[in-house]
Amino acid sequence: MIGLTHYLVVSALIFSIGLIGVLRRRNLLMLFFATEVMLNAVNIAFAAISHFYNDLTGQMFAFFIIAIAASEVAVGLGILIVLYKRYGSLDLDELESMKG
Amino acid sequence: MLQPINVSLESLNLITLAPMLVAIAGGLIILVLDLINSKLHKTLYVMLTLLILFIDFGAVLGLNVNERGFFDVMLIDGVSIISQLMIIVASMLFIPLSLTSKRFHEYSYPEFFALFLFMIAGFQFMVTSDNLILIFVGLETASLALYTLIALHNRSNSFEAAVKYFTMGALSAGFYAMGSAVIYGLTGSIELYKVAAVLSLRMDEASIMIAIFGASVLLLTAFAFKLSLFPFHTWAPDVYEGASAPLAGYMSVVPKVAAFVVSIRIFGMYIDLGIEWVRIIILVLAVGTMTLANIMALVQEDVKRMLAYSSISHAGFIMAALALDTTEGTTAIFLYYALFMFTNLGAFAMLWISRHKVRRFSDRYDNPYEKFAGLINIMPMGAVIMALFMLSLAGVPPFSVFWGKIYVMQAAVNSGYVWLAIVMGLNSAIAAYYYLKLIVFMFLKEPVKSVDTVYYNLSKPLMAVIGLATVATIGAIFYIQPLISYIYYMISASGY
To answer: Cα dihedral sign for B333, B338, B342, B348?
Structure first.
């Protein structure tokens, strides 16, 4: 029987995968995908907890997270396109000019 | 058979939404105006934005303290009113800085002003709610608009800054969402007052501490990113350097005020529940932030990066006041930002008027110290004003930030944290070094090159803003007492 714990473990695992992705990826596009993975992991947790409590608030939060993730992608990709037009690359190590 | 849902208009208490609606409607009006006639001059948009901010200010002043509205999602308490007033005043100081004598790419777009107003609405939503969903939506509305405003500056550095800020913001959004999921899992609610009620009933359960620890670490990480606290501060100097100078000054005040309000609501709740290690974590973060940022600021070669590190260090000061969780400590947070706002925006505005299209003094930096060498010979008035701002930031009496610092220390001593006050004093002493370094460059050194004029970007509106900031910095001694009593009254009225 799959219970709440299973869902929460899956959610925590996916969240960790996303976090490792953010820390390890050098390509900006992949890095943005990793942050989306983190947000979707949270959605799983919210949906599962919401079902567990028989309360709709969690699912509502999940919908808001989906909407926010979508708008983040819209703005983020816009910035990435400008960046790519200017530099011809999305690699973090090549782009970095400000340090210290 | 589902019953139709009836909601009476009076129970919504729509007046609580009025300030945000003013800002959003203003943004839409600007967009529509641009559709009708796209050849309008930016002065019109600046004046329109100022007008909308004035109406917004009036709408906030018209609110009653301690009301709830819109299905109890909106919470108007003293903290939210003060922070909204501060956000709007800082915005009113910021927006005339776009009337420079030189043309800049971003201000030729009316979208700049529309996005700016949407951002303010986002911050206002963030501070007027104790519902985790609305806080999240407000936070993201404001942040997404802010990333775009940074990128609009149209320099290669600005795109890099926008991407860095965006990445950090997206990461902190993930942490915030996960932290709220843990809170929801623990208590079955996302309204902070219900969360507090459920948690206080469950405090003596055995394993609850681990879950509370998880939630507070996730949320603390999210807000440490936003507040640029010590291990998560690395983005801030780069973003401030890449953004235009007024926007950098704005970013060092307004988003942090909003994030501090949410932190007061969330972590104040934890400390009130008697969870002592939350306070310890916050204290460690605060002391680390002020010390490390100070040491980093010592070695900077660029004035803008120095100011960025200095504003991180000031955020550390204020975070320490958050850990006290007394009425006095919370008052100190708002008092400090109210004073710091004028001085810091003034200092960044001084960098803005000396901005050149090309880097004339260094290949790497826009505002190296050499640029300001011998400024007293070239532009005596400017040098004196800049020196005033530096002395104020260093905490020299009787200038404005001194009163903020002394009030924070007093709050720390009164709640029994004498060592914290001593650490703050030592940090102010270290900080004086790098502020005085700039004064030495301006007053005692000879100009490096034959400079025609450093004040390339000067115009009447900029002079007005800087004059206002100077008056607020010098005259602090005259308004400090009523300001403290007003903030104290508002905060004690909302029960913090």
So the answer is: positive
User: What distance in Å separates the CA atoms of residue B82 and residue B78, rounded to the nearest whole number?
Assistant: 6
Q: Are B349 and B245 in contact (CB under 8 A)?
A: yes
**What string of DSSP letters covers B175-204?**
HHHHHHHHHHHHHS--BHHHHHHHHHHHTT
Tens of pLDDT, residue by residue over B189-220, are 899 989 888 888 888 777 888 888 889 999 99
Share of chain B above pLDDT 70, in %: 98
Q: Do B190 and A79 lie within an 8 Å CB cutoff?
A: no
Beta bridge partners of B129: B74
B361 pLDDT higher than 90: no
Residues from chain A that touch B167, judged by Cβ atoms under 8 A, are: 22, 28, 31-32, 35
Q: What is the ipTM of this complex?
A: 0.95
For residues B255 and B226, the answer to whether their CB atoms sit within 8 Å is yes
- B75-100 pLDDT per residue, tens: 888 899 999 999 999 999 999 988 88
Grouping H, G, I as helix, E, B as strand and the rest as coil, residue B129 is: strand
Lowest mean pLDDT, pick from A6-10, A27-31, B68-72, B140-144: B68-72
Cα–Cα distance, B130 to B178 (Å, whole number): 17
| Ordered DSSP codes for B7-43 | --HHHH-GGGGHHHHHHHHHHHHHHHHHHH-TT--HH
Residue B234: closest C-alpha in chain A: A100
The 8-class DSSP code of residue B302 comes to B
**Vertex B205 angle, CA B201 and B208, to 5°:** 95
Cβ within 8 Å, pair A79-B163: yes
Angle of helix B380-394 versus helix B418-444 axis, rounded to 10 = 170
Q: Exposed, middle or buried: residue B37 (CB in 10 Å: 0-12, 13-18, 19+)?
A: exposed
Tell me whether residues B300 and A82 touch, CB distance under 8 A. Answer: no
Overall pTM > 0.90: yes
pLDDT of the residue at B83: 94
B185 lies within 8 A of chain A by CB: yes
Query: What pLDDT is stored for residue B344 in this prediction?
Result: 92
